[in-house]
């Protein structure tokens, strides 16, 4: 062995080699010999394992340091804290109206009445719905919701229970209310539907009339007929 190998510098393996010979992990693990006939370096398996463990530890520490200082090639500053964005969604509140909730009322707790262009006893024609173009007579007016009942119009089936124990139930048809905007006044003489108008007679009485035909609806004779019919129905 040469003087350089005896001194234990480890940089050169000896003459005539001017450059150091690297030791790979595979060669150390297999215990291969490095050098020529004049300079030989034998590595035992125990020394190979210790050297490989040391290289693995150094490489892991280097990777941890690089990961902590950079991410995807960007430098990270440990002192800064990343801001967190808070998402605020709009709060929606839905309120469902109950059927038993009362409508708008007057100070005396009575429901607010709405103006209706038809009255009891008027002949009207349905302009929309399943009973379109049917003609009937107004039987009842509900001023709180602008609905009316027309005879033989908008019939609905109703199941009626027996009043006594032995009496059986029955199925009857009744007139369901419809909105007053779904009907127009009808002239039996001209057989046309028309909008309603208002005018004042010579005696100062305000009456309704049909705009198409000029027929007066609120005449004294008509009101007498209506009152007679109502009295007969009440007696029955």
UniProtKB/TrEMBL annotation:
Keywords: Ribonucleoprotein, Ribosomal protein. InterPro entries: KOW, Rib_uL2_dom2, Ribosomal_uL24, Ribosomal_uL24_C, Ribosomal_uL24_CS, Ribosomal_uL24_KOW, Translation_prot_SH3-like_sf. One of its GO terms (cellular component) is ribosome. NCBIfam families: rplX_bact. Belongs to the universal ribosomal protein uL24 family. GO terms for molecular function: RNA binding; structural constituent of ribosome. One of its GO terms (biological process) is translation. The keyword Repeat does not apply. Residues 117-144 form the KOW domain. It comes from the Eukaryota. This is KOW domain-containing protein. The keyword Transmembrane does not apply. It holds the Pfam family ribosomal_L24.
């Amino acid at each position: 062995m040469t003087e350089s190998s005896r001194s234990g510098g480890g940089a050169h393996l000896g003459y005539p080699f001017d450059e150091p010979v690297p030791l790979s992990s595979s060669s150390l693990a297999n215990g291969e010999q490095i050098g020529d006939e004049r300079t030989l370096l034998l590595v035992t398996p125990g020394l190979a394992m210790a050297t490989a463990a040391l290289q693995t530890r150094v490489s892991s520490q280097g990777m941890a340091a690089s990961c902590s200082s950079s991410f995807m090639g960007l430098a990270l500053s440990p002192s800064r804290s990343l801001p967190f964005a808070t998402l605020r969604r709009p709060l929606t509140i839905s309120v469902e109206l109950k059927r038993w909730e009362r409508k708008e009322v007057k100070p005396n707790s009575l429901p607010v009445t709405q103006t209706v262009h038809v009255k009891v006893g008027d002949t009207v024609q349905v302009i929309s719905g399943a009973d379109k173009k049917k003609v009937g007579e107004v039987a009842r007016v509900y001023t709180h919701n602008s609905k009316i009942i027309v005879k033989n119009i908008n019939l609905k089936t109703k199941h009626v229970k027996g009043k006594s124990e032995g009496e059986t139930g029955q199925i009857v048809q009744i007139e369901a209310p419809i909105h007053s905007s779904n009907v127009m006044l009808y002239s039996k003489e001209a057989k046309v539907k028309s909008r309603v108008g208002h005018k004042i007679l010579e005696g100062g009485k305000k009456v309704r009339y049909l705009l198409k035909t000029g027929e007066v609806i609120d005449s004294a004779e008509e009101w007498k007929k209506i009152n007679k019919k109502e009295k007969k129905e009440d007696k029955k």
